[in-house]
């Protein structure tokens, strides 16, 4: 059997189209500012793709590029300025940050109402306690993909591989809120393969190229691959051995063209949501 491929690029395009319509009805351009310190290669493609998508959706979007040697106080000053700017609805500080800057301090300084990454402890707490807040883009994008592919989540056995604050933990919280039975597994889990084989929905988010093997996948499972890993030969692969997993899964996301484009679409969605909430806009429909 060969799995159905869940086309994240197409689902993201559809979501961006709906957002463009929503933005044009607002009568103002939601403002997004992305702050990038230094030149971490992982965030290069992301920044370029995001800028293009944001402008196309009608957002007022700009990237603020700071030098690698920027100090923590300087970055905190910029965040304070963006917090105070009424035209700015969303603030995203690209991670990872250079060594001299403590990321948790910077994330804590962002106004939670403008925290379109959903990384502030306030938004993480809102998600954990089932309250409305800004939800991290990648896990939010995964939930959109599951819905678009008509994968039943309620009651399903879901396994999340990875426990990061930016993907694994919020992913588990969202699946739980959608009534899945959620297991989080990680590098210290005994018999990872066995745990993964129990999954009806497997979300792989460890950042290790093709770590999930074909025989880790139950027959008929849905496989969501969050990993984006660059191999020495330049090829881009996920955390899952795609060809082998496709022989067992019923549905699977590719890399590239799976979760990545959804992360960007959800960043735009969060910016629109932040703008609507902050400015007290009442939308029709
Ligand atoms: N504060 C913060 N928030 C982030 O969300 C964040 C970050 N920092 N730092 C860097 C990572 C990386 N990231 C990506 C998102 C989408 C693609 C993406 O769209 N990838 C495409 C194309 C990839 C390619 O062609 O190279 C795909 O998977 O199909 C990639 C990478 C968000 N990140």
TrEMBL record:
Pathway: One-carbon metabolism; tetrahydrofolate interconversion
Entries under NCBIfam families matching the protein: PRK10792.1 (NF008058), PRK14186.1 (NF010783), PRK14188.1 (NF010785)
HAMAP family, sorted: THF_DHG_CYH (MF_01576)
Binding partners and assembly: Homodimer.
The organism of origin for this protein: Teichococcus globiformis
Domain Tetrahydrofolate dehydrogenase/cyclohydrolase catalytic intervals: 6-117
Pfam families found in the cross-reference section: THF_DHG_CYH, THF_DHG_CYH_C
Keywords of this entry: Amino-acid biosynthesis, Histidine biosynthesis, Hydrolase, Methionine biosynthesis, Multifunctional enzyme, NADP, One-carbon metabolism, Oxidoreductase, Purine biosynthesis
Family: Belongs to the tetrahydrofolate dehydrogenase/cyclohydrolase family.
Listed name of the protein: Bifunctional protein FolD
SUPFAM superfamilies noted in UniProt: Aminoacid dehydrogenase-like, N-terminal domain (SSF53223), NAD(P)-binding Rossmann-fold domains (SSF51735)
E.C. number: 1.5.1.5, 3.5.4.9
PANTHER family: C-1-TETRAHYDROFOLATE SYNTHASE, CYTOPLASMIC, C-1-TETRAHYDROFOLATE SYNTHASE, CYTOPLASMIC-RELATED
Annotated NADP(+) binding sites: 162-164, 228
């Amino acid at each position: 059997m060969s799995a159905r491929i869940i086309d994240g690029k197409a689902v993201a395009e559809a979501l961006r189209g709906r957002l463009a319509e929503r933005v044009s009805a607002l009568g103002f351009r939601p403002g997004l500012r992305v702050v990038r310190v230094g030149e971490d290669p992982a965030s290069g493609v992301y920044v370029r793709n995001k800028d293009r998508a944001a402008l196309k959706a009608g957002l007022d979007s700009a990237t603020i590029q700071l030098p690698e040697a920027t100090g923590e106080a300087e970055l905190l000053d910029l965040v304070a300025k963006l917090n105070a700017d009424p035209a700015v609805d969303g603030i995203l500080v690209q991670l990872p940050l250079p060594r001299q800057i403590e990321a948790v301090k910077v994330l804590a300084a962002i106004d939670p109402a403008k925290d379109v990454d959903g990384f502030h402890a306030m938004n993480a707490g809102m998600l954990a306690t089932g309250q409305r807040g800004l939800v991290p883009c990648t896990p939010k994008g995964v939930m959109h993909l599951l819905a678009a592919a008509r994968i039943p989540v309620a009651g399903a056995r879901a396994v999340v591989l990875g426990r990061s604050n930016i993907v694994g933990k919020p992913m588990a919280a969202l699946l739980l809120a959608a009534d899945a039975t959620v297991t989080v597994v990680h590098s210290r889990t005994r018999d990872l393969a066995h745990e993964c084989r129990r999954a009806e929905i497997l979300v792989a988010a460890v950042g290790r190229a093709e770590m999930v093997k074909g025989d880790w996948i139950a027959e008929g499972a849905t496989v969501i691959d969050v990993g984006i890993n660059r191999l020495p030969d330049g090829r881009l692969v996920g955390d899952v051995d795609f060809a082998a997993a496709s022989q067992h899964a019923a549905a699977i996301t590719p890399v590239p063209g799976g979760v990545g484009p959804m992360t960007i679409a959800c960043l735009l969605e969060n910016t629109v949501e932040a703008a609507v909430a902050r400015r007290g806009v009442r939308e029709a429909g």
